[in-house]
Amino acid sequence: MPSIECIAPSPKYTTSGTSVISPAGMSFISSLLETPLLTHVAAKAALNPHSAVNTPTGPLVDLFAENEKGKLLDVSYYNILGGLPFDCNPAMVKTGYHNACLFFHPDKTGRGEDDAVFLQVKRAFETLGDENKKRTYDSSANFDNSIPAEDLPERKFYKVFGECFQRNMRFCVTADTAGVGKAGRKGKSAVGSKKKGPNCPEFGDDDTDFKLVEEFYRFWVRFESWRDFTLAASKETNNNLENMEGSSREEKRHNMKEVERMAKKLKQKENDRIASLVERSIAMDPRMKRAKEAKAKADAARKNAKGATAREAKEAKDAAEKGEAEAKAEEEAESKLAQVNKKAVKEKEKKALRKAKNNLRKLALAAFQKGGKDLAGNWESLESQNDEVEFLTEKLDLSVLPALGDALGTDEDNLKLAGVAVVRSAYEATKSGADNEFIEAQKKKDEAKKAQEMKEAIEKASKAPKPWTGPEYSALKKAATKYPAGGANRFEQISTFVNNLLCLPEPRSKDECIKVLADVISKMTVESGDMGEAKAEVEKVRAKVDPLVWIPDEVADLQAALKKFPGSLEKNFRWTEIQKFVATKDKMQCVKKYKEIRAGIAAKAAKK
């Protein structure tokens, strides 16, 4: 527990020196005594437009008005000094205090040294300017101690619990802490932090790796708070340790011990609150539930395997053999389909290659005959022409041969004799193994063409998908098992696995795999009788395809929020609160869904 010295009263504020005030300055001071604070600010701005009448973060609060309403003590010290941030430094506190003194110091107001407003300004400065006092004040002021309810819907779990953990990270003694929200933002060092420690992992979402989830809860089980309850304890026991003048030493000691005992109780209560938050989060975390269920199934399987009878062992063996036979049949079907696809591709390529070879032979012969001896660089004889062309047709593939034919012309009636030099140069380079500009250029064009064809095939498949075959369903199931939920780029990996395994001429897209997998999961789980698991998994998979889909629970939340926040409220405030209530959708999605519901009701009314 912090020393009682941290909240001991500071020396009274004193002033010294004199100043000469101009007539304009006297007029300004008079206005301070006769008008509200906001008018003071305007008057000072009018007197000196270049002066800083505000703190670095916001305007001063009208403390005179708050005092008259009896609410002066309700104004936080941060707002008294001009809306300072929670992590303000001593320089910011000093600046805020100097600005506040321009309006609330007795020399300005003439209200005397005992003015409640100025005393509160001094108290705010003395508290926020001292690290120990600030820590004590921050421990009790402006903090939401609540933890999420036990009946919170699962779809709101990550948002609500993530924000709660982020809020409580404020009191962590560890200086090196990372943000516990979904986005993984870096957190600032806690006020009063004393030591370095391991980073807090991200709270994450439903796809976060389970090892990181375990590390997150391990961090919070060992969570250590710097929160100081001395101020709260003094209020609970009605012992104001800052104002004990005239009390005897025994009375002071007695009061301090009472405060210490109460502070320990409040500290224990705080530790219990954090422990309850962690326990409740673990109990409600879908990721922990899945891990627990998986462990229970694994334990049950080991137990059943250990105590199985001979009959059960035989049944298991028969089932395994049947499964192996079915798997073998599926693999054979997949292999057959892949072979058929490969054969079709090879036949197509073989036919195109044969056509390109014959075309080159025909055009080369025609060019040799037409060019004759007058054509510079022409083949010396028919035999040499035939040998060179046959060498090229044997060594080159579809990436170059069609282009060589095109270099000689489109047909025998439209020959390009200049192409003879291109063909003979390609022959010399191929024979010697040297680089040839024409050949390299054609290979690059062919690679670009194949990439474009693959892209167009995927786009075509995504727009007009063909019915899935048995081997494709089997490959999809294998891919879903190989790449379970929670991995990065899961559905990209699944689609790549299916396409590569079956050598599909028209590749299946990621979105196709997601949609079909949702149907497969639904069918498999319905057959097994586990409807709850089917509904949850299918909704999760379909959400990957269309995050704008509203499930019944979300619609019910929206309807409840519309009743709770009526149209009489300010528009922006109303929809902000509605979005917070729904939690899983943003503001624009809520507005759009509301308009759809309203249009549906109007359509039904029109029919009646």
Description:
The protein has about 600 residues and is mostly helical. It folds into five domains: about 5-140, Orthogonal Bundle (Helix Hairpins); about 155-290, no CATH class; about 325-435, no CATH class; about 465-545, Arc Repressor Mutant, subunit A (Orthogonal Bundle), CATH 1.10.10; about 550-605, Orthogonal Bundle (Arc Repressor Mutant, subunit A), CATH 1.10.10.60. The chain has helices spanning about 25-35, 35-45, 65-70, 75-80, 90-105, 105-110, 115-130, 130-140, 155-170, 210-220, 230-235, 250-285, 285-305, 310-370, 380-395, 400-405, 420-430, 435-465, 470-480, 490-500, 510-530, 530-545, 550-565, 570-580, 585-605. The longest helix is centred in the middle third of the chain and has 62 residues, at about 310-370. Mean pLDDT is about 75; it is low at about 1-55, about 175-195 and about 525-530.
Describe the structure using short key phrases.
elongated; 65% helix; 25 helices; disordered N terminus; 5 domains; 608 residues; mainly alpha; Helix Hairpins; single chain
Describe this structure in a few short sentences.
It contains 25 helices and no strands. It is mostly helical and 608 residues long.
Number of helical stretches of at least 4 residues: 25
- First CA to last CA: what distance? 72 Å
Q: Report on the biggest sheet.
A: none
In the CATH hierarchy, the architecture of the largest domain is Orthogonal Bundle
Instruction: Indicate the CATH topology of the largest domain.
Output: Helix Hairpins
CATH class of the largest domain: Mainly Alpha
Shape: elongated
Q: What is the H/E order?
A: HHHHHHHHHHHHHHHHHHHHHHHHH
